[in-house]
Amino acid sequence: MRRITVLSCLIIMFTVSFIHCQSLPESHPPSVDSPGRQAGNFRKTGTIASDRLVECSGIDMSMIRDDLLWAINDSGDGPYLYAMGTDGRDRGKVKMNGAFNRDWEDLATFKWRDRSMILVADVGDNRQRYGLYRLYIIEEPVFFGESVSSAADANVAWTVTFRYPDRNHDAEAVGVDPTNGQILVLTKRDTPPLLFSLPLKPEHLAQPVVAQRVAAMDRIPALTSDDLLYPYGQYRCLPTAMDLSPDGQKMVILTYKHAYLFDRSVSDNWRSIPSPTVIPLPLPQDTPGFAQREAACFSRTTTGLFITAEALHAAIYHSDIAPD
């Protein structure tokens, strides 16, 4: 009798455990925190109002106005820069003469010879087949009043065409390091992601430049088994945006999972990658209109971070980045 009782109990325990495991909803796995220091409070500042900015793949703060963000669409749009408030209010668009949107994935604002400039990065390559990539630089448009004129346009000041030294790469994260006069490009689908550099204005603009490998960004936490419990969890750690502070000392990298803040004050270059501060992001299912986050930039004071997503009327969020 004792053997039968023990065996029966084991069968019941196994059955209950199996049913419980089978009933866990796939979209709500246990919450997972990344290792390292954490920062932030996270709040919604607005919603992208423009009906045309449907796949926002890059944003950055204006170098001229405190209340203005510049943004771009992913592939499928014309060569347009979109102006919007930090609350998402539509403030018009500017056509970039001399540019073509094959797969625009990021943009960066920066100062160059006391001029406010914007770089637009045509570096997306999902199938890694293009070979050559382009970075368009224009002077930041100046406008008065609330919105850009409907006929506004800007000429490309110069174009940097480049290739990688080893093979083709897909990238969605680009920044400008003003202290060294360099453009930094971070690849997306490599493990770990690879950081490359280019001169901001090459001597021979008519010839393609070969990017120089700087470092492997192995400080971004790698994919975990827990990540795979989420829908599309295999993509959670891929970098989708990057921005550098105006003084070039801080770098933020956005992934689908969290954002990571790097401070290079201990080094004069990015070859030695410091450990990052983690900027936690909420789960996609908990933030409607914020699932596919692919655009991020420092706020004007560099004490905060703006993040938005690729979606029609996507939400815009702000996070403090000073460590707790």
Primary descriptors:
6% helix; single chain; mainly beta; 324 residues
- Tell me the number of strands: 22
Q: What does the average pLDDT come to?
A: 86
Task: Please mark out the parts with pLDDT under 50 across 5 or more consecutive residues, or reply none.
Answer: 1-36
Helix fraction by DSSP (H/I, runs of at least 4): under 10%
Strand content: 35-45%
User: In order across it, which strands form the biggest sheet?
Assistant: 2-3-4-5-9
Question: If you compute it from the alpha carbons, what radius of gyration comes out, rounded to the nearest whole angstrom?
Answer: 22 Å
Order of helices and strands: HEEEEEEEEEEEEEEEEEEEEEE
Description:
With 324 residues, this protein is mainly beta. The protein has one domain: Tachylectin-2, Chain A (5 Propeller). The protein is 6% helix and 39% strand. The chain is built from 1 helix and 22 strands. Strands 2-3-4-5-9 form a 5-stranded mixed β-sheet, with no helix packed on it. The protein has a 5-stranded mixed β-sheet with strand order 6-7-8-10-14, with no helix packed on it. It is globular, with a radius of gyration of 22 Å. The N terminus is likely disordered.
Brief overview:
The protein is mostly beta strands. Helices cover 6% and strands 39% of the residues.
Secondary-structure blueprint of this entry?
Elements: H1 2-22, E1 42-47, E2 56-61, E3 68-73, E4 80-85, E5 90-97, E6 106-112, E7 115-122, E8 133-139, E9 153-155, E10 158-163, E11 171-177, E12 182-187, E13 194-199, E14 209-210, E15 212-216, E16 239-244, E17 250-255, E18 259-263, E19 277-279, E20 293-298, E21 304-309, E22 315-320
Parallel strand pairs: 5-9, 10-14
Antiparallel strand pairs: 1-22, 2-3, 3-4, 4-5, 6-7, 7-8, 8-10, 11-12, 12-13, 13-15, 16-17, 17-18, 18-19, 20-21, 21-22
